[in-house]
Design brief:
410 residues, alpha/beta, FAD/NAD(P)-binding domain, 3 domains, 5-stranded parallel beta sheet
Length: 410
């Protein structure tokens, strides 16, 4: 008779919740423990900067599973607990307070944390970051009609929170350290679309901004002082300058850590019986032939199936192309594929960029590396197929909306 095995998942977001689901679905009937450092059961993060922040989604809807799912599936959910160390030799994790939880298989889904702003005043009360449900609640309270909101950072989180603030009637300024928001991610032509979108909705978008400090009255921020002497009054300051993978546990345990926890295509780390998934995993991507750490929702949704199968000793690799979406004002976007900032030679557009209704393709020679649809529906699967097929396309055909994307496939 085989010994009953205990599987432990460290993390409290989508990847942790889905991994528990996948383990049960694929046959693990032994003890299953999920350890999260928040009091909330596992939840999905994109609504925190979009639907939930806008008041369009309720709190219950952001959770991965209903509250009774964990009890019904015999999942031991330990909330508000921190894992302080991993004992690889003893195959156990230690919790705050000193108690130990043994494991036969361990999944690290520890996610990431907002990068902190390194200027004077960054620790004042109403300097706000967005990562957790409570953070989104604080932003919702701050985004009121006439409130002065300064957003530091023109990435996805910065622009999504700026859109939410404007839609609530706040006066919004976005500070970006380069020429355009999203310039490094999208390239100039596509980045200009998002810059124009926010300007049309009344956002004061300031490029090449250098922040001297956050000013205060008492213990609260009252504005942002720029290096050129400009002072921007603020009732709240939102910081969105990137995230950092939570790798301390892995580092302390001696795992291979380079821009996240390094894994193979099966999501196995350098340590026996330890896997990683989600934001924290720098996983080898067999389709792209390189390691890749993806900070988006789709990875946290889909990687857990591969991790669960691998933990169960079954053959599985993760080769799904990166996927990302955003909703800002009346713009809905989906993007799939992977193109490094210096890894493509041009962007080809299909449709009306000035009307914000188009598809953009990042190209290397005649191959599509990635594609983004803006207010164009039901095309992401065709874009994914174009990328995965590696088919060569013609610039005379690809931009033509009259030519179905499916017809370009081999």
């Amino acid at each position: 008779m085989s010994r009953v095995k205990t599987f432990v998942i460290v993390g409290g977001d989508l990847a942790a919740g889905k991994a528990a689901e996948e383990l049960r679905a694929h046959g693990h009937d032994g003890p299953l423990v999920v350890i999260g450092d928040e009091q909330e059961r596992p939840y999905i993060r994109p609504p925190l900067s979009m639907g939930y922040l806008l008041g369009k989604e309720d709190r219950e809807s952001v959770h991965v599973h209903p509250e009774d799912w964990y009890r019904a599936n015999d999942v031991d959910l330990l909330l508000g607990r921190n894992v302080t160390s991993i004992d690889r030799r003893g195959s156990a994790v230690t919790l705050d307070g000193g108690s130990r939880v043994p494991y036969d298989q361990l999944l690290l889904a520890t996610g990431s944390a907002p990068r902190r702003l390194a200027v004077p005043g960054a620790d004042l009360d109403n300097v706000l970051y967005l990562r957790r449900l409570g953070d989104s609640d604080r932003l919702r309270a701050a985004f009121s009609k006439g409130a002065r909101i300064v957003v530091i950072g023109g990435g996805w989180i910065g622009l999504e929170t700026a859109a939410a603030a404007r839609m609530a009637g706040a006066d919004v300024t976005v500070l970006e350290h380069v020429e355009l928001p999203l310039l490094k991610v999208l390239g100039r032509e596509a980045a200009e679309v998002f810059a124009g979108l926010h300007r049309e909705h009344g956002v004061d978008l300031r490029a090449r901004a250098e922040i001297e400090r956050i000013t205060k009255t008492g213990g609260r921020a009252d504005g942002v002082l720029l290096a050129d002497g400009t002072h921007l009054p603020a009732d709240a300051v939102v910081v969105g300058v990137g995230i950092t993978p939570n790798v301390r546990l892995a580092e302390d345990a001696g795992l291979d850590v380079r821009n996240g926890i390094v894994t193979d295509a099966h999501l196995r780390t350098s340590a026996e019986n330890i896997h990683a998934a989600g934001d924290v995993a720098n996983a080898y991507h067999p389709r792209l032939g390189r390691h890749l750490r993806v900070e988006h929702w789709a990875n946290a949704l889909h990687q857990p199936r591969t991790a669960a199968l691998s933990m169960l000793g079954k053959e599985a690799v993760y080769d799904r192309l990166p996927y990302f979406y955003t909703d800002q004002y009346d713009l809905a976007m989906e993007c799939t594929g992977y193109a490094e900032p210096d890894g493509y030679d041009r962007v080809v557009f299909r449709g009306a960029r000035d009307e914000r209704r188009f598809i953009a393709f990042w190209m290397s020679g005649k191959r599509v590396l990635a594609g983004m649809s803006v207010n164009v529906w039901d095309v992401v699967d065709s874009i994914r197929s174009l990328v995965e097929s590696g088919v060569e396309t013609d610039d005379a055909v690809l931009p033509d909306p009259a030519v179905p994307l499916e017809s370009l496939l081999p």
